[in-house]
Amino acid sequence: MPVLNRAAELQDEIAGWRRHLHREPELLFAVEKTAAFVADKLREFGVDEVVTGIGRTGVVGLIRGRRDGGGEGRTIGLRADMDALPIEETSGKPWSSTVRGKMHACGHDGHTAMLLGAAKYLAETRNFAGNVAVIFQPAEEGGGGGNEMVRDGMMERFGIAEVYGMHNLPGLPVGAFGTRPGAIMAATDEFTIKVKGHGGHAALPHKTVDPIVIGAQVVSALQMIVSRVADPVASLVVSVTKFNAGFAHNVIPEEAQLAGTVRTLSPDMREEAEARIRQICAGLAAAHGAEIAVAYHRNYPVTVNHPEETGHAVAVAREIAGEAAVHAALDPMMGGEDFSYMLLARPGAFVFVGNGDTAGLHHPAYDFNDDAIPHGVTYWVKLAESRLAAR
């Protein structure tokens, strides 16, 4: 089955919404204009219930089916993210960001527009039994908006039994889909390490405890976690991304500060990585007579697809794109995704839709590919109709 005719007909209109959102990006939870645009569109479509302020600035629209009791029964959730990134855009597109230092560099404008298109279609046809909750989430880019919506009681309030998410993927051809059961995206922990030594004149290093030298040993030792602690077939990233120390050529400073990220695909490896970081720092502190403090923050958990729901998602994608264009055993990615919180609360699946040969995610030249719109809209519609088919 190719894309829905109606989805193709709506492509230009949906692309218009997408480009409007692209021009006016907003960050984290401060997505008031975007949320208002979404809520207004949902009301315009005749969505039965539109609730704002879920998880601070999230929006949920409830569309009731007209088969088997006019909306009685199960509810499934379909989720899109709304926030942008603090990046200066260089795409050169006519619809480029008008807000200095902010842009939709991850395609959340496209995700929001595609789910709005699906909501419009589903509100027109209502060819399903039960209810569809369309979820528009703030603060995916580091704010944990998915967790906030779950903590706000969204699943219970709307009776959501299953939940599904979708993200575009540069490099995957337009019209193709990719997913996998189990872990599909990594946990995204963060650490900050403060090395406190004893400063002094750079010409008299023997009278100091040099935090820069010790910090350099910390950086090197942390790499051993991946190369000599983790199973070679396991997935683990330990990256030091900041190293700040010193203020003059001839002064050894008192302190150095390092920071970075740990990416894992299993709870056991997550525990092991944190424990090893703390052990390494304690050992180097003792060896050199320094003080090393580790602040470790557990960020987004692993995004884990549920096998049965992933099977449903794959079946729908294959109906649309054909067997060859659906990658049902996609390699896991070490990026993070706070849809993970929703998958902890309810069974569901996270899939990727092809964005074609474009700049990568989080790149200043990135732009969502509007040719992907009919495929994403069709996926959402057919997923809803198949999961809520009359029994």
Can you tell me the CATH topology of the largest domain? Answer: Aminopeptidase
Strand order of the largest sheet: 1-2-4-3-5-16-6-15
Strand content: 15-25%
In angstroms, what is the radius of gyration? 24 Å
Low-confidence stretches: none
- The CATH superfamily of the largest domain bears the name Zn peptidases
Mean of pLDDT: 96
Number of strands: 16
The biggest beta sheet, please? 8 strands, mixed
CATH class of the largest domain: Alpha Beta
- Helix run count: 11
Distance between the termini: 22 Å
Principal-axis shape: elongated
List the helices and strands and how they pair.
Elements: H1 5-9, H2 11-23, H3 32-45, E1 49-54, E2 58-64, E3 75-81, H4 108-125, E4 131-137, H5 145-151, H6 154-157, E5 160-169, E6 177-178, E7 182-185, E8 187-196, E9 200-201, H7 211-229, E10 236-245, E11 251-252, E12 255-264, H8 267-288, E13 291-297, E14 303-305, H9 307-321, E15 326-327, H10 339-345, E16 348-354, H11 373-387
Parallel strand pairs: 3-4, 3-5, 5-16, 6-15
Antiparallel strand pairs: 1-2, 2-4, 6-16, 7-14, 8-12, 8-13, 9-11, 10-12
Helix pairs in contact: 2-4, 3-4, 4-11, 7-8, 9-11
Plain-language structure description:
The chain folds into two domains: 5-185 and 303-387, 3-Layer(aba) Sandwich (Aminopeptidase), CATH 3.40.630; 187-297, Alpha-Beta Plaits (2-Layer Sandwich), CATH 3.30.70. Helices cover 36% and strands 25% of the residues. The chain has helices spanning 5-9, 11-23, 32-45, 108-125, 145-151, 154-157, 211-229, 267-288, 307-321, 339-345, 373-387; strands spanning 49-54, 58-64, 75-81, 131-137, 160-169, 177-178, 182-185, 187-196, 200-201, 236-245, 251-252, 255-264, 291-297, 303-305, 326-327, 348-354. The strands form four sheets. It has an eight-stranded mixed beta sheet with strand order 1-2-4-3-5-16-6-15, with helices on both faces. A four-stranded antiparallel beta sheet has the order 10-12-8-13, with helices on one face. Strands 7-14 form a two-stranded antiparallel ribbon. Strand 1 and strand 2 (58-64) form a beta hairpin. It is elongated and about 80 Å long. The two termini are 22 Å apart. The relative contact order is 0.20. The mean pLDDT is 96.
